[in-house]
């Protein structure tokens, strides 16, 4: 009798357990199928990144050549459709470098060689309004704003047989204000979530006067001394941009 009762109890328990597991699994699948609704802030936000080329203009062009780097931007729509936004850009690019090998120290001699690299950088920053046409296969936009351009030259040391950097020095730095005007076009390539568009644009930076270096501006002297000869001019330049825009 006891064995029969236990057997029936085990069967009933198994049925209830199976039913409960099935119900939990169904609930779990339903919950996982639901998608979170983006907040109003997220729906008005977009951003992107791109590769950029700098093309100096005026006296700036006489001193340095093209530069190459990357840029990121964030835009917040000020209306529901996206005609007017507030846009902020930040980039970094290098416009010239030098490399040479030297012994690690006179004490060790020439058996341990290191690579000394010096690179010149520009960091363009800007913020301002953007007007855009938010529909269609081609969505043109224009923007303007104020910003700054930061110039610095950095030297670092790494092993000649690896890329591990173990020392660096900023040789020179300066900055100047600038105003910015530009435009471009967004070309949608995916209209799901998130929405993805190709971003092709130009941006003119009307930079003020600043001091900066180029390859050859630093001369090594005896007794571990250096001589730095900076250049100074207005820093007007055009940025050519190719990248992607991502929006909710």
Give structural notes:
By secondary structure, the chain is of the alpha+beta class. It has one domain (48-188, 198-247): Beta Barrel (Porin), CATH 2.40.160. It has 3 helices and 10 strands. An 8-stranded antiparallel β-barrel has the order 1-2-3-4-5-6-7-10. A two-stranded antiparallel sheet has the order 8-9. The radius of gyration is 29 Å and the shape is elongated. The N and C termini lie far apart (66 Å).
Helix and strand arrangement:
Blueprint lengths: L1 H32 L6 H5 E12 L2 H5 L3 E11 L6 E22 L3 E24 L6 E21 L5 E26 L4 E18 L5 E4 L3 E4 L2 E17 L1
Antiparallel strand pairs: 1-2, 1-10, 2-3, 3-4, 4-5, 5-6, 6-7, 7-10, 8-9
Quick summary:
With 248 residues, this protein is α+β, with helices and mostly antiparallel strands.
Keywords:
248 residues; Porin; eight-stranded antiparallel barrel; 3 helices; 10 strands; disordered N terminus
| Rough outline | elongated
In terms of per-residue confidence, which ranges show pLDDT below 50 for 5 or more consecutive residues? 1-28
Whole-number mean pLDDT: 86
Q: What is the topology, as strand order, of the major beta sheet?
A: 1-2-3-4-5-6-7-10
């Amino acid at each position: 009798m006891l064995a029969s009762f236990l057997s029936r109890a085990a069967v009933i328990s198994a049925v209830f357990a199976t039913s409960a597991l099935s119900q939990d699994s169904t609930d779990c699948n339903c919950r996982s199928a639901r998608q979170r609704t983006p907040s109003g802030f997220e729906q008005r936000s977009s951003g992107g990144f791109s590769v950029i080329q700098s093309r100096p203009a005026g006296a700036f062009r006489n001193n340095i050549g093209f530069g190459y780097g990357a840029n990121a931007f964030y835009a917040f729509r000020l209306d529901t459709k996206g005609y007017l936004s507030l846009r902020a850009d930040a980039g970094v690019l290098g416009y010239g470098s030098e490399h040479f090998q030297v012994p690690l120290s006179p004490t060790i001699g020439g058996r341990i060689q290191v690579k000394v690299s010096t690179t010149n950088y520009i960091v363009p920053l800007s913020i301002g309004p953007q007007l855009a046409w938010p529909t269609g296969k081609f969505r043109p936009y224009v923007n303007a704003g104020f910003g700054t351009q930061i110039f610095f030259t950095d030297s670092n040391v790494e092993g000649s047989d690896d890329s591990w950097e173990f020392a660096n020095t900023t040789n020179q730095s300066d900055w100047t204000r600038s105003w910015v005007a530009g435009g471009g076009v967004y070309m949608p390539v995916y209209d799901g979530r998130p929405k993805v568009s190709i971003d092709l644009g130009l941006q003119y930076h009307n930079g003020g006067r600043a001091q900066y270096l180029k390859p050859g501006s630093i001369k090594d002297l005896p007794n571990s001394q250096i001589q730095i000869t900076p250049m100074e001019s207005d820093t007007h330049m055009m940025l050519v941009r190719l990248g992607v825009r991502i929006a909710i």
